[in-house]
Design goal:
Elements (H helix, E strand, L loop, with lengths): L8 H5 L18 H9 L1 H6 L5 E4 L5 H10 L4 E4 L3 H14 L5 E3 L4 H4 L4 E5 L4 H14 L5 E7 L5 H10 E6 L6 E9 L9 E5 L4 E5 L11 H7 L11 E5 L5 H9 L4 E6 L2 H13 L6 E5 L11 E6 L4 E2 L2 E2 L2 H13 E12 L5 H7 L3 E6 L3 E7 L1
Parallel strand pairs: 1-2, 1-4, 2-3, 4-5, 10-11, 10-13, 11-12, 13-16
Antiparallel strand pairs: 5-7, 6-7, 8-9, 14-15, 16-18, 17-18
Helix pairs in contact: 2-4, 7-8
Length: 380
């Protein structure tokens, strides 16, 4: 800890915000798992040499800034799959005067080379955890200790098994405030990484490539499957389109196959999704017309610049059920579409988004509905 000052972690954490991610009374910037991870790793953090601490999946900066301010850690390398997490950490680091203590890094040797301490918020998917665990085992120092925490309701025994395939020792901490930490050490040799994986979807005639954190993996999720039925009704004169929240890029590549004159941007805030979509476009020989962009809901795209937006929006923010992310997507679609441009959306029917789409984009018609999903066409 710097100097002889007493570190007030609660004071630091009270200054952290989620922006630009959705902010609401039931959505927090720091949770009990953040605190428990830092407490379990306290001795290791205090002993770590500069540049040997890595942080993965830090939601909004609590782990990174807690390690920096509470234990004097410097040269912290951080990987956050969502862009909103990166932006929130940068804003919170600026607010707390800790911007010089860390740097963003891609998952791999850049992040993990020589790391002796890894702090991590456990991801929800086992595929993402598998890719992360293999990367740590492959690149980190042999003495590395991994402190991977989360809320009890999101931790399963399968996570112990995943970590156990990459580390010789895995144990669980005592629980506290409905949170727990899995502590792994003794990295095993990784012969060949599991991810990315490629699957051929015969029904679409597509090869789909997926990194571990990409939504639905290399499979076709049922919402996207339903929206695909309506792609032949997209304006055939469209020349510019976006697959918003692209995942592995199935919608983007399918639209490019259908309309030979269209250029499609596959965009997502997830770095794994963007990498997956780029690989999917290459695998299908469409990387000349399907480009990728890691962005926060098309915020960097020009107003009135697009003919078509395709969107299968999430109905959650992190682990919390919340429709704020979808509203943000709809509002940006209304901004970027040219007058007369189309937004095609698929969503769980119980969410009743039609009124919101009419308000944020323009006149909206329900063009399809099955027992689970609704598909709408909104005209800007």
């Amino acid at each position: 800890m710097p100097g002889s000052e007493v570190f007030d972690r609660d004071a630091l954490f009270s200054r952290l915000r989620r922006r630009p991610d959705v902010e609401a009374p039931n959505l927090v910037a720091v949770d009990a798992a953040d605190r428990l991870i830092l407490d379990e790793a306290a001795a290791a953090l205090s002993a770590a040499r500069p540049g040997t601490v890595a942080v993965i999946g830090d939601h909004y900066g609590a782990l990174t800034l807690g390690a920096a301010a509470g234990h004097g850690a410097t040269g912290i390398r951080v990987h956050q799959d969502p862009l909103t997490g990166e932006l929130a950490l940068a804003a919170n680091a600026e607010t707390t005067g800790l911007s010089d203590r860390y740097r963003p890094s891609a998952l791999g040797e850049e992040l993990l080379g020589g790391a002796t301490v890894v702090l991590m918020q456990l991801p929800r998917s086992l595929s993402e955890l598998t890719e992360i665990a293999e990367a740590i085992a492959r690149y980190a120092d042999p003495s590395v200790a991994v402190y991977a925490g989360g809320r009890d309701k999101h931790i399963s025994t399968a996570m112990n098994d995943v970590l156990g395939r990459s580390f010789s020792a895995v144990r669980a901490s005592l629980g506290r405030q409905k949170s727990r930490v899995l502590i792994a050490s003794g990295p095993e040799a990784v012969t060949a990484p599991t991810y990315p994986v490629t699957d051929h979807l015969a029904e679409l005639g597509l090869d789909v490539v997926s990194y571990g954190a990409a939504f639905a993996g290399a499979k076709l999720d049922i919402g996207t499957r339903y929206l695909l039925d309506f792609l032949p009704r997209v304006n055939p004169r469209a020349r510019t389109a976006v697959d918003l929240g692209c995942g592995t890029g199935i919608l983007a590549v399918s639209l490019a196959k259908l309309l030979p004159d269209v250029s499609v941007i596959a965009t997502d805030q997830s770095s794994a999704a963007v990498a997956s979509a780029a690989a999917t476009a290459r695998a299908n020989g469409l990387d000349d017309r399907v480009s990728t962009l890691r962005d926060d809901a098309m915020s960097s795209l020009g107003t009135d610049s697009l003919d078509v937006v395709l969107c299968n929006p999430p109905f959650h923010v992190g682990a919390a059920v919340h429709t704020g992310g979808a509203s943000k997507m709809f509002a940006e679609a209304g901004r970027v579409l040219r007058p007369g441009g189309e937004l095609w959306t698929v969503y769980n029917s119980h969410l009743g988004y039609r009124g919101r789409l009419q308000r944020l984009v323009g006149p909206t018609d329900v063009v399809g509905r099955n027992p689970k999903f609704t598909v709408t066409r909104s005209v800007a």
